Amino acid sequence: MTWNCDDRLVTTTDTDSSVLLRRGFALENATLAWNVVGIVILAVAALGARSVALAGFGLDSLIEIGASTVVIWELSGTGEDRQRRALRLIGAGFAALAVYLLIQSTWVLAARFHPDHSILGIVWTAVTAVVMFALAFGKARTGAALDNPVLKTEGRVTLIDGLLAAAVLLGLVLNAAVGWWWADPLAGYVLVYYALREVKEIFTGEH
């Protein structure tokens, strides 16, 4: 416990909270920057390979950008009402992603559309999986220390982003290695499952 130059009491908890907030902002800004770059790379890879999984993962990255923006906005203020609105915005993004991927993956399977191979997609999703797992771990610890439900929820979003990157990577590798074209839209269904699960947990208050 110390006194600052304005004779205002500054506790160790105040200092710790300030450090944790800065860490939260840094983690979200890193996630934001990574996904901005990722959208461009995934768009090029998805168009080149005509891959529904890569296109879906690109949309997931877009939602992650929105989620990070929402968390940065929420960390800048206080109040349960702001937290509820932030969570609902994240949930709405996941709902839109689930609808798109469900329609697109079903169409690809019904039409028996064969995507091409994508080395760029394989490399990017592999690196992204590692990066997202590291960021998710940092957000989980920071969110728990701050007791901030929005940061903790967005940490789960980032964890899912890493899991989805691994699922898309598996589909791309199977398509490239053994010609299992259907692995690509099946990876899209994996994204649908996780997106719907997040929507349910957000809007039922399970987070």
From TrEMBL:
Keywords: Cytoplasmic vesicle, Endosome, Membrane, Synapse, Transmembrane, Transmembrane helix, Zinc
Family per similarity comment: Belongs to the TMEM163 family.
Location of the protein in the cell: Cytoplasmic vesicle, Secretory vesicle, Synaptic vesicle membrane; Early endosome membrane
Membrane-traversing stretches: 32-49, 55-75, 87-107, 119-138, 159-183
Key word Magnesium present: no
Xref: PANTHER family: TRANSMEMBRANE PROTEIN 163
InterPro entries, per the entry: Cation_efflux_TMD_sf (IPR027469), Tmem163 (IPR026765)
Stated name of the protein: Cation transporter
Bilayer topology annotation: Multi-pass membrane protein
